[in-house]
Amino acid sequence: MVHFLPATDVESLTRQKFPEFGNDPIDLETIDRAGSGRCFYRLCEKDHADDGSERRIMAMNYTLDRPENGRFVAITKFLQSLEIRVPGIRGEDEDQQLLWVEDLGSQHLSDFSGHDWDYRRLLYQHALMAVAALHQVAEENAPNELPDMEGGFDEGLYRWEQGYFFDNFVANFCPGLDGETADEIRNGTELRELCEALTREPRALIHRDFQSSNVMVQRGRTWLIDYQGMRWGLPEYDIASLIYDPYVSISKAHRDDLATYYFDLRKTGESRELFEKRLHRCGAQRLMQALGAYGNLGLNMGKSEFLQHIPVAVERLREAAVERGVAPGLQVVLDSVEPNA
Questions:
Q1: pLDDT tens readout for residues 228-258
Q2: Going from the N-terminus, what domains does the chain have, and what CATH number goes with each?
Q3: Using DSSP, how many helices (H) and how many strands (E) does the chain show?
């Protein structure tokens, strides 16, 4: 059981750190993200200025159960050095494992799912431009000032993600699939070759969880958040995480449109065919990881809200793996998913 600071303690520590809050009442909203070992608190003091302006800040209380949380500050500063928009660090109390960061509001890219595509496309393009700046940092030309990071993607991590999918999703949501068949697919040539193909590719810095809920929108501009898992990996893993994101409604045509935008943005000189092959391989890999996460969070951690994303994730995995020819053997698995999953 993860224990975070009581809201009253966070308010008291905030007043000590930022005397400008004074003694006026503070509105405090708790945003529990215990699954990530963090809890956020939005603090807002109504200013008595004539313009009705507000003094706002976000506090983040974290645990080190996930070591990446302790790297947030260093990675934030690194991303700022690349001129990537991320929330500014306003203060830190290492003893209390408490950070204060810029409040970017409460609108995520995922909140714009119902808007017209022309406006959404612009927001997606801003996000892609930001992450493309990160992808410019190639492992073969790694700068000396890199912060400490999580271990990079390698064959072992790709195999772990696939195992996560079979252990937490297939075992629980595919009642029509017998264990022997599931093991054959899990340990078969197709998925092993997928891991090997991804491992052979050159790596760059990636966000690692570049989905629409990790892009904030404020005044028509985008900011990246939840990047503490930054590591070496394939840029297409990030792009697939965004365009195949099960949290939002996005058509295949719009996915292809965004992929084209990113491809043109990078100007790597390689063929579109090679880019797309790598993109859809990463899409299949990422969606297996996502379905494993939904099963784990929804069943093992009692966060049932994640289960609602399973049907969309299944169909997008079918597109990336089966229709795009990355791992057609997964069709047997996907066809066995219980209808009400």
A1: 999 999 999 999 999 999 999 999 999 999 9
A2: 7-101 (3.30.200), 109-335 (3.90.1200.10)
A3: 12, 9
